[in-house]
Amino acid sequence: MRTLSLATALLTFALAAPAGAATLATDAAPGSLGFRVQLENPYVLAGEPVVHALATLEAPRTFRGRDRAVNLSLVIDRSGSMLGQAIADARDAAMQMVDRLRDGDRVSIVSYSDDVRVDVPSVVLGPRTRERVKDAIRRIGPNGWTNLSGGLVAGQAEVRAHLDSDKVNRVILISDGLANRGVTALPALNRIAREALQEGIVTTTLGLGANYNEDLMTAVADHGGGNYYFVQDSKEIAGVLSGEIGQMMATVARQVALEITLPEGVAVDEVFGYAWQQEGPTVVVRLGDVFAGQRRAVLLRLRVAERRGTVALGSLGVRYQDLTADGARRGASEPLAVTVTTDSALVERSRDKEVEARIAEIELATSMQRAAALVQEGRFDDARRELSTATDKARAKRATLGSAGKGLADSADEAADLVEQLAAPPASAEEQKVMTKSYKAGAYKLQKK
């Protein structure tokens, strides 16, 4: 197993490195993120073009660095579909969020329907301004259509006007409907989120109810480096915003990016669960911010031209701004290589069980996505068969993995619960939409594990 440990110590906190791990030199002093790279297998059979690599980032469970101010824009859908309890709960949640932010944090409130309105331009919170912000939130009322892109761009502009690498810069976008005004094409919306992320502005999305486009909201969050939440009941908005604020206040690293530099003959086939861009010979996976206690396990599939002997796969590294101390940029990279062999027994006994477990989780998440598509089409028996087969396969795989398969077992149990839900088909079109979104949200969570 190829492993590396980046920054195994943080102030008074220590991350345990795996046995045999090598500590790499960094751009500065050791930083906040533990980082490991593992190959599925250091050996590949001749003629096999695919190699999997797993990059795992772990942040310390507690944040002991200097508090960082938050620069936040909350963007609220006030289209006509929000009429009633939804807009009332969104307003209440927004006011609770303002109460939770600290004096000295920045916040702006943007709302959108056909038009876009900056209800509160970015303001520093304090005893005088806090109530003024809440008064503006109380006056938000619903009507019209859904200019989601306009709201997103306006929220980004408010954050950008006070962009500071010393702060946590974020947009939180809430919507319960379909984007039907302004920019509605998914590639263009993804680009808006991606370009903001490159500046250091993270975008989180919250989809409310049964009628929004979950694929759009997921993609914007992916390209924006943030989180995606499916909220079935508007009363849950407050808890989601509270959790998001908690994460922001516990941010230990920002503008985190994996970088895969590829030699000729090697290509990235897929980065499962994450948006990625090819920039010359380098593939960049922008992960946004990482908060205390968070773990990211990013699985990549590489495709290699036919070679013999030892094959260099390039290098896989991480770069980020460390917020635990002086805000310095830090990073490390590790060269990767495999040996081509005709010895199938050698390949079999050299497999990395942790990587195999993660591959099995991704396969399970893919089956959950397929089941969601079948539910959306009304093919409930087919969806149940898809999930049941995938659950059985995951449990069989878990039995071969020992302790490395514990997480896979938990994921298989969650998938089994979804199978049980399909014992009785949805009773209405509304329930069918909710079930589809629930399955996709479960797959999203598993891919981001």
Q: How would you describe this structure to a colleague?
A:
There is one protein chain. The chain is of the alpha/beta class. It folds into 3 domains: about 5-65 and about 250-350, Sandwich (Immunoglobulin-like), CATH 2.60.40; about 70-250, von Willebrand factor, type A domain (Rossmann fold); about 355-445. The protein is built from 11 helices and 20 strands. The strands form 5 sheets. The chain has a 6-stranded mixed sheet with strand order 6-20-19-14-17-16. α1 links the parallel β8 and β9. It is globular. The two termini are about 20 Å apart. The model is unreliable at about 1-30 (pLDDT under 50).
Topology (SSEs and partners):
Layout: E1 4-5, E2 9-10, E3 13-14, E4 22-23, E5 34-39, E6 43-45, E7 50-58, E8 70-77, H1 85-100, E9 106-112, E10 116-124, H2 127-138, H3 148-160, E11 168-175, H4 186-199, E12 202-208, H5 214-223, E13 225-231, H6 237-249, E14 251-261, E15 266-271, E16 277-279, E17 282-291, E18 295-304, E19 310-322, E20 329-341, H7 344-349, H8 353-376, H9 380-398, H10 406-421, H11 429-447
Parallel strand pairs: 1-4, 6-20, 8-9, 8-11, 11-12, 12-13
Antiparallel strand pairs: 2-3, 5-7, 7-18, 9-10, 14-17, 14-19, 15-18, 16-17, 19-20
- The CATH architecture assignment of the largest domain turns out to be 3-Layer(aba) Sandwich
Order of strands across the biggest sheet? 6-20-19-14-17-16
Approximate strand percentage: 25-35%
Structural class: alpha/beta
Work out the helix count.
Answer: 11
Mean pLDDT: 89
